[in-house]
Amino acid sequence: MALRQQSSGDAFAPGGEAHDAGAPGLGAHHLDAYNVVLSTIPSDSHTWNLLFLQLLLEEHGCEVTNLGACVPVATLVGESAQSRPDLIVISSVNGHGLEEGRDLARAVRAHPELRHVPLVIGGKLDTAGSQSEDDFLPLLEAGFDAVLVGETAVPRLLALLEQLPAPAARPIAPSLSGLEQKAYADATR
């Protein structure tokens, strides 16, 4: 696993800054689940990887907003800024993650509200199926906190969840089914 360390020594708490709890007075807050935005790169039409990760993250107590396949970078940034996630997970299996992931990371890091949100990418990130962390340094340089590839990708993702600060308090949204969440994400693109 390649994990970029922040100045505070905690990989996911840059500068020791606390997450903003959102606008006051918006109702009850959910304190015990991480809010995760799950997406892929704009050219990746695969969904099986996203469904697997959504189920895995939900089994580990996360609330997941799965934006689906072929998500434009602007949509990812907008949805992430609106939902104020504790973690953004990008999965790609079409072999173009190394190329498209750099622009995606730069766009996420350019948004003031997302600058310090942990951002990870994993899957088959190049057409050669590279497994060496050195092959993916450009993704770390562009703004990803971790690159997860190969047989250890899933265990390392779960280990990263354990390193996250306590989930941020945020208003509880009306309960939507996965299909309703996907329809909402599609409608806002």
Note down, in words, how this protein is organized.
By secondary structure, the protein is α/β, with parallel strands linked by helices. The protein is 34% helix and 13% strand. It has 6 helices and 6 strands. It has helices at residues 48-59, 73-83, 97-110, 137-142, 153-163, 178-187, and strands at 2-3, 35-39, 63-66, 87-92, 119-123, 146-148. Strands 1-6-5-4-2-3 form a 6-stranded mixed β-sheet, with helices on both faces. Residues 1-31 have low confidence and may be disordered.
Write down the overall geometry.
globular
Percent of residues in helices comes to: 25-40%
Discrete helix count: 6
Oligomer classification:
single chain
In whole angstroms, how far apart are the ends?
Answer: 32 Å
Largest beta-sheet characterization: 6 strands, mixed
Mean pLDDT across all residues, rounded?
A: 80
